[in-house]
Amino acid sequence: MSTSEHPPTVLLGITGCIAAYKACELVRLLKKAGQRVKVVMTPAACEFVTPTTLRTLSEEPVALDPVDDPAAPIHHISLAQEADVLVIAPATANTLNKLAAGVADNLLTTTALACAAPLIVAPAMNTHMWRDEATQTALAVLRQRGAVLIEPETGELACGDVGEGRLAAVEQIAEAVLAELRRSRDLVGRRILVTAGPTREYIDPVRFISNPSSGITGFAVAEEAARRGAEVILVSGPVTLPDPFGCTVIRVESAEQMLAAAELHFHGLDAAVFTAAVADFRPAERATQKLKKTAGTPVLELVRNPDILTTLAGRPAGTSGANGAGAADAADAAGASGATSATSASAVGQRPYIVGFAAETEDVELHAREKLAAKGAHLIVANDVSAPGLGFASNQNSWLFVSAEASEPTGVQPKRTLANLLLDRIVQSLC
Ligand code: PMT
Fold first, then answer.
1. Catalytic choice (17, 24, 115, 159)
2. Using a 6 Å CB cutoff, which residues line ligand 1?
3. Which of 28, 231, 377, 390 has the fewest CB neighbours in a 10 Å radius?
């Protein structure tokens, strides 16, 4: 715990893994950021990096098995109580499985069991160990209990395999720790709707129109909002991500289903964040049986999908019917018409704060500003989805916040950090 004598305490658990040496750099970064770092090492971790190194870097005694301080017989309790955040980096499959099962057989796992502070785990292991059902089940259990998972990276591993399992960048882990320490409960009492992922528009039972959205962005926004105290309803298209902590999750497939689910929950909201990459078109008809090649090349007739954001943002539907597709047309044409935003305070009334996203491949700011005006959003988060390594399905992105007043770039950041920047803006606007 932070006291007048020292800043918040980061309790860093190190487990036995070749990436243990990277924990030294993590200590250095956290110290540089002004944190007090106390290290607890498993016996196996000491095979990879010495306690002396960690003691020197952290400027604190290192906690080891067996209890190294005879004056503190209940060492795991005092360590647990001191922690403002417990981060385990690297976290082996063995330790993750123990944490999930509540096994307490060394000083680190015993401390973790006794620790009420937020838990962050940064796994590192061989790809097959990472993919193993036992590991994934343990991670799901830990996430469900509120642990923050820093996903490992994909690349060449110490064992020579190539795949997922490499410890995330220490800068990313340090940032997650600092974010956890900074985290305020500034969204308590707020209700937020988030849409995420792609939609699937089926041609026949096995073929569909879709896009590469992974849901990472929407899930990060939803989970971070929940951790800041909001009641969150997440409506997601088909993605492989597990339910984020603390959210009500509604899984849908098509744009029409996404609209129906979002509409159902569009009450009492303080904010709505539309990160989903919704298909603008769907086949006019869905074949009931798989289309046969022998029947010749089919010609697909497409029809417009409802524009969920435009419909729910409460803009006049213009020439459209109730589903808002006409208003979406207006959005597409807005650049030419130079339409102005209807998001002044008086026009906003009691509407929730509306955040739309804009996936662009050129003239990002221009198109985002058109969407701000035409879709009835208070804020558009624009991103260049043609930029290599950013946008769809990556863990980082670069956003441009476009409001009636300004355009502000974020630079390249992890999506979780970006989610919190967006939530900071939402909090500000709600105040
Ligand atoms: O999921 P990830 O892999 O993390 O990828 C993130 C992302 C690239 C999907 C995200 O950053 C993003 O850009 N989301 C918006 C994608 C999109 O559909 O952009 P758009 O410019 O076509 O749509 C503009 C806005 O209207 C969006 O808020 C969209 O949710 C909404 N929309 C669009 C069409 C439609 N029929 N209904 C909608 O609500």
1. 159
2. 195, 197, 213-217, 255, 274-278, 280, 305, 307-309, 356-359, 371, 383, 385, 391-393
3. 28
